[in-house]
Write a structure and sequence with these properties.
heterodimer; A: Helicase, Ruva Protein, domain 3; 2 domains; B: alpha/beta; Glutaredoxin; five-stranded mixed beta sheet; two-stranded antiparallel ribbon; 5 helices; elongated
Chain lengths: 158, 194
């Protein structure tokens, strides 16, 4: 391995190691580390409206930056987490939350899968019970002499 | 006894065939339901977010005019039976696309149009208006974009149709196209001006 390829390799490894650093924004954190931690935590809950499947905590979109600033502002002003959430819900709807809240509009989303599963399991259960009952009826259709014959045959085999 | 089992066995068989038919139809029903949802999904734009502000009063705001202009924009200015609040910026490429339509509305005096100049450099905005024309009655300069966020703006251009009570009736996200103008906007404006 020549010197220059080694240098290239080392450079590439360093670049890969430094990738997470790109996600950190040059923004002024809140003075109180506890409040800043709460802000950071909250930023993970909000959807970037421009990139949609990214949280504002990791989005480079301009709007996400503004939203991060608002989160910090609201927390510095003494808002609790729910109030900050409501601030964004009032403007962008429930959709702004990456984790959709449980309410009348989202009940289908939350419960739909389970309900369909239950219905399916229920249907299978009903069918199975019915077919075993039908099967039992067929088996007990043997007359007493037939049953005795069957038992005798099985004893002989055993 | 054999008679007994026969008659007892017959009724469930008939019942079973009817439920059997129901079972057979179940996948078909499921297919139809899923199909309806998917078909509807074809005509939805996933990047378009339904605005929670529809049928709610426009947020309260009071924005200064662009330098050298004298008409800023405040929520108290939204007093016409119908007016458009158009969110625009000189850096916004799609704003150029809808701009001629706004100019046409202005020329025809169809409806008052107000501008919300979103996160723009005031001088760049003034140049833009000088070069392409100014369709706006009033323009508020939303330098830090906070009024935009109050309006739930996430992609410029956006256009809000506001009624005489200051209530947002409809929102168009993205540029107004000739089709949207003819099929949705003009009929709605005519209806509201009645």
């Amino acid at each position: 391995m020549t010197r220059s390829t080694l240098a290239t390799l080392v450079g590439m490894v360093l670049l890969i190691l430094s990738l997470p650093a790109f996600a950190i924004f040059q923004e002024k954190p809140l003075a109180d580390p506890k409040e800043e931690a709460r802000a950071q935590e909250l930023m993970r809950d909000f959807r970037c409206l421009v990139c949609q499947n990214q949280a504002i905590s990791e989005s480079h979109a301009d709007l996400a930056g503004d939203m991060r600033a608002i989160v910090r502002e609201r927390i510095a002003a003494g808002d609790d987490n729910d109030t900050v959430r409501q601030y964004f819900i009032d403007r962008y709807g429930d959709w702004v939350l990456l984790d959709p809240p449980l309410n009348r509009k989202t009940i289908l989303l939350w419960a739909g899968g389970g309900v369909i599963l239950l219905v399916g399991v229920g249907l299978i259960f009903i069918r199975m019970r019915r077919s075993t009952r039908a099967g039992m009826q067929g088996q007990t259709g043997l007359s007493d002499t037939e049953k005795a014959e069957l038992e005798r045959l099985m004893r002989e085999q055993g | 006894m054999t008679d007994n089992t026969d008659t007892a066995g017959e009724a469930p068989t008939r019942r079973r065939s009817r439920t059997g038919l129901l079972f057979a139809l179940l996948p078909v029903a499921a297919f139809v339901v899923i199909g309806v949802f998917l078909f509807r999904g074809l005509s939805l734009d996933p990047s378009e977010i339904y605005s929670v502000l529809i049928n709610k009063p426009a947020p309260a705001f009071d924005l200064a005019p662009l330098p050298g202009k004298d008409n800023g924009l405040a929520s108290s200015d939204l007093t016409q039976p119908v007016q458009l609040v158009n969110v625009f910026a000189s850096w916004c490429v799609a704003c150029r696309v809808e701009h001629p339509l706004l100019m046409e509305l202005k020329r025809n005096g169809t409806v008052p149009i107000h501008g919300l100049n979103y996160k723009d450099q005031p001088q760049a905005a003034l140049n833009w208006l000088r070069n392409f024309g100014d369709p706006y009655d009033r323009i508020g300069s939303d330098l830090n974009g906070r009024v935009g966020i109050d309006f739930g703006v996430y992609g410029v251009p956006e256009t809000f149709i506001v009624n005489g009570e200051g209530v947002i009736v409809r929102k168009i996200t993205g540029p107004i196209t000739p089709q949207i103008l003819q099929k949705e906007l003009l009929p709605l404006i005519a209806e509201m001006q009645k």
